[in-house]
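Journal club side-thread
Mid-discussion, someone asked how the predicted structure for our own chain would compare to the paper's figures. Pasting it here so we can look after the session.
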Amino acid sequence: LRARRAAIRKQINYTGAIYEDPAVNWTRLSYVQPQTHLFDRYLYDPVAHAYTVDRYLDDVTKRYGGIDSILLWPTYTNIGIDARNQFDYFRALPGGLEGLKSLTADFKARGVRVLWAYNPWDQGTRSEGEPHWDTLAKLLKATQGDGFNGDTMDTMYRQFWDAGVAAKYHIVGEMEGGGYPSEGERPEDASFASAEWSPMGWGYFDYQLKDDNITYDYRVAIGIDKMKWLDSRRMTHVCDRWAKNRTDPLQFAFFNGLGFESWENVWGIFM
């Protein structure tokens, strides 16, 4: 196993320098992260038309000890109803980008980092006139966000990291597919190479689906997170969004020294 790991690191010229970057090394301790919709009643007061960050954080702290980062998600399932693109949905939030910047500051004041949703399949709506990675880096910088979650993406493509560098604002990329090599349409997805610039990801560690065809049936013998094996500083958030009993994924996370996606408001359904 040690020889195999050394060979992979050599093959991708892995240095692990990403973990020495103060702009992104907070990921090492970001153990608990929920995905949250922007009009969740604990986060937004529709009568006062104001975000209620303290109310939201007080609730999760009381119920399960608090969170380290949060994934803000205003796009899917709304996107596609008109010509607005995914970035327009952030701009359209109460207060616009300035309101989002204030919301982000409120989370950070209580030690919580902020990530945005990113939907790479958003290709048929209004064009920004530039690659998605450039727009994303600029908007994160404007609102002081910390990074993004790549919906449906297996690995973080280098262009996203380079866009942050070009904007003089290093950003964290957390891919839904976790960064694990896969046989996709892009050759980049077949390699561990993105580990050099992506220190965080989601993890689906299912063996097979249960009879309900939606929740995961975990192995009796707990497996190993390959990205954590490649570099122990890596942070993976184990995700089992539809599970009502989350004992198995929590035990998997604990065994591997991983984090957990404490996602409860799943497209408006509270799990």
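Post-session note: Residues 42 and 56 are 5 Å apart (CA to CA).
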